[in-house]
Amino acid sequence: MLLGIIGAMNEEVIQLKEEMILENTREIGGYNFFKGTLLGKNIVLVECGIGKVNAAICSTLLIQEFNVDKVLFTGVAGALNPEINIGDIVVSTDLVEHDFDATAFGYDYGVIPRMEVSKFQADKDLVELAKNVAIENFGKNRVFMGTILSGDVFVASPDKIKWLRDTFNGECTEMEGASVAHVCHILNKPFVIIRSISDKANHDANMNFDEFVKLAAQNSKIIIEGMLKGF
């Protein structure tokens, strides 16, 4: 089995890269794909860059060029659920592109016209594994399951938080996960998105993000390594 592991930023992949046994590095379209082993499991690790297009291109290349069996995406996010705090974990049950707006044609927000699916379901077995590892390491009260929202916007507004929560009932918001999920759905690859909360997506989000991103990335690393032990 070959696992694909994606992080959006260097902070989200550097710790995993430092611990893996690297076999080779392959550069494709500006993305560096690191192939090797981590905790005895075969992986391909890549930093996709920020935003939905970067994530979609990178995950497509990962699947098409390396034929990975499963895709794990790890990184940070801003909380939408008021019960979620900085450092808590959100495991995706499904993902939605919250900035997809075809409401002028009568569609609901987030619905992609002429697609049968706009809410992309994560693999149930991967979700269960991620949840169990997260609870084991951080405790049940710090682990949340539900919808993760993605869009090409860094949310830092209480009004935007309220709209996203009211419209989609999302647990957290970020900028890549749903596009990775979209690609995995099209290419028929099981996936799960794991997010550690770096900010509350409010007016303090920029300050909180810079301060806590490394801590959140460390939390994500713990979960990824725990999952690898479970395969």
Helix-strand blueprint:
Elements: E1 2-7, H1 10-19, E2 21-28, E3 31-38, E4 41-47, H2 52-66, E5 70-79, E6 89-97, E7 119-121, H3 124-138, E8 143-150, H4 158-168, E9 172-174, H5 177-187, E10 191-199, H6 205-230
Parallel strand pairs: 1-4, 1-5, 5-10, 6-8, 8-9
Antiparallel strand pairs: 2-3, 3-4, 5-9, 6-7, 6-10
Helix pairs in contact: 1-6, 2-5, 3-6
If you had to describe this structure to a student in words, what would you say it looks like?
The protein has 231 residues and is of the alpha/beta class. It has a single domain (2-230), classed as Nucleoside phosphorylase domain (Rossmann fold, 3-Layer(aba) Sandwich). It is built from 6 helices and 10 strands, in the order E-H-E-E-E-H-E-E-E-H-E-H-E-H-E-H. It has a 5-stranded mixed β-barrel with strand order 5-9-8-6-10, surrounded by 4 helices. The longest helix is centred in the last third of the chain and has 26 residues, at 205-230. It is globular and about 50 Å long. The model has no long low-confidence stretch (mean pLDDT 92).
